[in-house]
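Newbie here. two chains, one complex. Structure please?
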Amino acid sequence: MTRRAVRRTPGDTESDKEVHDVENLQYLQAFLDESDENLQTLNELCLRVERGEAQDADFAAMFRAAHTLKGMSATMGFQTMAQVTHRLEDVLGVLRDHPGRATPACVDVLFDGLDVLAALLERIRETGDEQGVTADAQIDGLVRLYDTLSQGDGRASAEVAAGLASSATAVRAEHDGLPAVSDSARAVLAAGQASGMATGWVVLEFDPACVMPAARALLAMRELEQAGTCVQCDPDAERMQRGEISLRVAFLMAFEGDPEPVVRGLGEMPEIARVRYVPWADSAEGGSGVGGDGETTPAAAAGAEPPAATGQGTPAPGGGPAASDGSGHTAETAPAPSARTASGAARAGAARADRTIRVPVERLDTLMNLLSELVIDRNRLATLASSVDRADLRELADHIARVAGELQTAVMSLRMVPIEHLFQRFPRMVRDLARTLGKAIELEMSGLETEFDRTIIDEMGEVLVHLIRNSADHGLEAPAERVAAGKPEAGVIQLRAYPSGQHVFIEVADDGRGIDVERVRRRAVERGLADPVKAAGLSDEEVYEFLFASGFSTAETVSDISGRGVGLDAVRQKVESLGGRVEIESRAGLGTTFRIRLPLTLAMLEALLVETAGHVFAIPLSAVEEVVAATPDNVRMVHGQRVLDDRGRLVPLVEVADWLLGAEREGRWLVICREGARRAAFGVERLLGQREIVQKSLGEYLADVRWFAGAAILGDGGIALIADVHAWMNGALRR
Amino acid sequence: MAERQYILFTVANEQYGVPVEQVQSVERMMPIAHVPRTLPFIRGVINLRGVVTPVIDLRERFGFPPVDADANTRIVIVQVDRFHVGMIVDMVDDVVSIDEAGVEPPPAMVGGVQAEYLHGVARRGEGVLILLNLERVLSHAEERQLREAEKAVRG
């Protein structure tokens, strides 16, 4: 127990570095996750403050979030983050007590602080440390804000008094007695001394600014335990564990060797103001007066402390911190600040009471993989059961199928997360965008409760950031232009999520100027993406496709907002890698909508199994519009190409055997696939039926294979390659 | 001296060895689903106890003429770096210990296989054993090649 808590704190000496690096890794993810959440809370509430909608409870919540952040970052040894959050907490403390003092200027300073925290977290996520991110300006800003907020205020003087008092506490400690030594400790010490060990109290006084004294204390204890045995400590280990700790702690040690280097080492730790070493000897008075009673008061125990000068042959620490010990201050007691620190630390360490468990996504993935196996076996069993005519076997197979189905649903639901988790960061982003661009932008969000697979949520962040920036920068007009066009000055960006059938949709819509089709057409010709004649004949939807071409931009000037180089092509790639699609809808003067269609879940899909030239392919049902039989009536030759005449509309026809396998076959069945406005018919020899399949990767070695999204294992143990319909369409329509 | 265990197999009458640590299992020939439009030596994918595993034909990989599978044909499943791949070989012979000190650098070409795919050669009895460098055999060069081939196919 103690060990664990100790290891959570960082080691500051070289020898401990490796141990703590490894151990910290386990906590790092949890730290990052929780910090993200707290930061998110702070961002949301700051926005609320800015809008003047904040309640008193919101300020309290902000203070709590900052406090938790501070505690966790200090425990993890991230000093810069701890400093920023410490100052943030100071400011929020004042605001909590005086909500009326919040001003727009103060929100800006808070946001600056939150931004640097986000940058620090990002840095920590990537490299494991905070190097390279400086927060001095933000810390200064927060300190100044704190000064301003607490000016001419009783509270400020109270703080100052508290500060003075806490240093007074530290001073007092020198003259204060040390705790009584318990009988058992006494016995251990005596035995230690008999075998030549040095025994004595190590007294640490923390810097009053120390953010997490409990963590420091436990860390110091670990240092000491490297050098000997800690026989007793004050406060006792349990209280220390709970964070009930003042600015002074004392450890009664039996050292294996010379205590001096250890004591000096502790003196060099950050946040430790002073270290004293007081050799212990079982004096006569200890034996008679105090020894019999372990509960003696500190005052009484003072008598048990031998003067450092007597030393009894134990080497007194030379120079170092102990040398400064000696001046005779008098001091009053001031328990207030230490009590405050204690309760704060205890709260930070307290377990969350809500009934949820945080589980690494990897573990869910393992569960999913096992389940995939089960689903495959279920299908095989069903095949077997139907070939062997036994009612009981069929019944059993049915039951297993049902249970497996329910299990599947249950596991899937574990992976589902409301999109709110993703959306909640955008109000802040849009606010900043609006300021940078000098536009008034309102963000409307809907469908926050729509659930998405966790993996999708993680992956979509970047995509949405890009689309929202794109809408804010290119979609929405400047305020003057809007007014001139008879629109409200403030532009609206809508972020919508909704499920529909086997898909979930996310839309980013603006009420801006719409896409200038002619300009895109011109750019496409300029860039050589299409010849002028062909470009002129393209429909609007087809022209929008050019926007997704690599590096395509119609912006006259490159702005910082939508970035350079990263274009909509990156958006499309990302979405497609998840098995989704992006569509654009735009009306001149009325606005543009980007619609992202994503599979409800990643791994399972309904597919149509087809066979041609001995190959079995699975075509995701989501892409299949309909299947028709090829007849002399509906298949025609146009310009030497076979096309499907679908009730008067011509659809390009691709013979899969010929196109993919170079085999001469004419398929009896035509599978009509649709993607956006495009349609294509794929000729295959046989239809094997519709199945629920588990999508498996083809493996890293075949990661570059173009035409297939993966493979599925069929009920008979065979393999069907899963068609990447988008790639198939592109391949087919290019011909 | 450091000894390393190797699994020996035969491809086109030459004996090759790969370190046992890289070999996951040795499988009998099984149905392979062909993956269209890949390089000729990539035979396709197999269902290896529920895991879709790519399979390459070492004969073709090294430029030897293909032969039909027979009762001796085996698929050696290896895991090298990120790649989990099956390699079709004519037969699997033995597991032997080879003293690393006795491994000589490969000549430019051994039995038609370029030195870049080889870790070295070791004398064994009257014969020579060719130790493969699987990292190279399955390397990124492959992916590039694959992409080029794709381009060529697509024109």
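Moderator note: The first strand of chain A starts at residue 198 and ends at 206. Chain A has a mean pLDDT of 75. Thread marked as resolved.
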